[in-house]
Amino acid sequence: MRASLVSSVLIVAIAALAEPRVGHANETPTESGTPALAPLLSRLARHAEQFEQMKRRGSFTLSGRMEELDGSGRVDGTKELVVRVIATPAERLAEIVKYLEDGTDKTSEARRKEQKRRAEKKKGKRTELHLPFLLSEQPRYVFSLLERDPQNAARVRVAFRPIVPAENAFKGSAWVDENAGEVLTMGFSPTKNPTFVDHVDVTMRFDLPTPLGRAPSSITFDARGGFLVIKKHYRGSATITDPALAF
Question: Mean pLDDT across the chain, nearest whole number?
Answer without folding.
Answer: 86
